[in-house]
Amino acid sequence: MITRKKTGKIPFRQILAWPVVFLFLILPGKELPAQFFDGADVQRYDTNYISIYKDELTTRVFLSHKQNSYILSEKLFSPWLQYRTSGQYQIGIGYTYSFLTLNLAIELPFVYEDRQKYGDSRYLNLDVRTDFRNMMVDLYLQWTRGYYLSNYKDFPELAGAYTGFPVRNDIRTSIVGINIQHLFNSERYSHKASFLQNEFQKRSAGSPVLGFEAYWMLGMADSILIPLPLDRSDFAGGAEFNQADLLSVGLNGGYAHTFVIKERVYLSLSSTWGIAAGTCILNNTATSELNRPGLSLGVTNHNQVSMGFNRKSFYTGISLTNFNINQNYSFKNGWFKYSTINIRLSVVKRFKLHRPIRILRPDLWIF
Fold it and tell me: Which of 44, 52, 203, 332 has the maximum number of C-beta atoms within 10 A of its C-beta?
């Protein structure tokens, strides 16, 4: 008889299966294909609250400002070292059709914050968002290089040594993650109407939100992340490290609501909070010293605000998205936080198509 030794570790295939199990728990099995691909004939919605522009091409021109933060804290919500990127201003174009959205943006030339003062930050972002009738799926891939210590004046030992912000062009952060959320009142509330503009919210409505999320976050630098002569004894047990690997898997929930005035002016608010189990590994690459405290706690927060003026074929408005990942080093001390904030001004025009784009309408050719 062959026996297997119990290692106490969760098989990797079980971890991969969690999102699939989550989907089938919250979605009725008979309507799964139609819910995913907006099959309005099966997944019903209240036409007194929502209009859907399924066969119209939604195009947009936008201006945006984005900034990331990488924060080390001794306690949750009590920032200690606050590293920030120099702000990035972008101009872009995009479109939404059916379930697919594509945006392309470039940095505005000659419009950026003083790089002599804040350093030269570099970004590589791939955010793939797919909103179905009652499901939102976000895939994150973000890489950032170049930060400055924004609160150095809070430390007397640093304030006297610098005449400007300490610049750390060697700090890099990477985020890979997925967030799957279910809307419980998708018959009357449309998240697409506020943030993708290929639907129309006629009356005020809201919906509870429940989701599953998983993230891997890496922060590293060429030298120690906590600069000398700062006292690091109260953070992560005094460990010296220039690389922090964090893994977080958990659930989130919250509420989203859109207020509509005369079917023209709207204000949309959405906030979700999550709690997760995870782990954090600190590495000093110069000495090959690793610190593995074991299981730890993670807290996430995702906020969205959008307001604007909406007509049948035209939209203009402004939106703000704030995304935060907090991961505990251990249950005793030390929190790592990655935060991004994006403000966008958009002008949108919808075009009526003479015939549907079948390749982008899976509900027409798959089922």
Answer: 52
